[in-house]
Design a protein that fits this description.
By secondary structure, the chain is of the alpha+beta class. The protein has a single domain, classed as 2-Layer Sandwich (Alpha-Beta Plaits), CATH 3.30.70.3040. Helix content is 39%, strand content 15%.
């Protein structure tokens, strides 16, 4: 008679991949936190979104970073060619009145100033985590929606957000440029 094989010794098993999973989840949470913070900072900076013409709308086009949660970014930064193509397309679109570029270095410096009194936020982001972006002023809501639709899913583009209009009589925020 053959004896049954001995039960495997738990101590002899290879180490589980649990630590790798924990690190991956932590990195994903950090990336989402940084992306959300960047959007929050931009929204506060752009309030209000109307300018000389009360019908103008601001659209922010955030470019891919290695920490972007968008799978189309492929965990890489937007290339110089992708940035140039996005800028060219933005300037060609009907109703576009102004296109401003902010590098990731400028965005990171602004982030550090905004959150100077929040060490927890400062520890959550590093240079390169906050995306470079284009802030685009367009003639109105229709042009903003067209720009958003055209830019979403383009190579090098992570997110496109139409900034909400402020309530009538709202004060300009600390990031509005005044």
């Amino acid at each position: 008679m053959n004896a049954p094989p001995p039960a495997p010794d738990p101590a002899s098993r290879p180490p589980a991949r649990r630590p790798v999973l924990v690190v991956a989840v932590a990195a994903l949470v950090l990336a989402v936190l940084v992306a959300t913070t960047a959007v929050f900072v931009w929204k506060r900076r752009d309030a209000p979104t109307t300018t000389k013409s009360s019908s103008e709308v601001t659209v922010s086009v955030f470019l891919c970073t290695r920490t972007a949660a968008n799978p189309k970014c492929g965990r890489t930064n937007a290339t110089a060619q992708q940035k140039a193509e996005v800028e060219t397309e933005l300037k060609r679109m009907p109703g576009v009145r102004k296109v401003e570029y902010e590098s990731f270095e400028e965005a990171y410096e602004r982030f550090k100033k905004v959150f100077a009194d929040r060490p927890d936020m400062l520890r959550s982001a590093r240079l390169g985590d906050i995306p470079d972006s284009y802030r685009v002023r367009v003639a109105g809501d229709r042009e903003a929606a067209a720009l958003q639709g055209s830019m979403r899913g383009r190579p090098g583009v992570d997110q496109v957000t139409i900034q909400p209009r402020p309530a009538a009589g709202a004060r300009r925020g600390p990031f509005s440029g005044t």
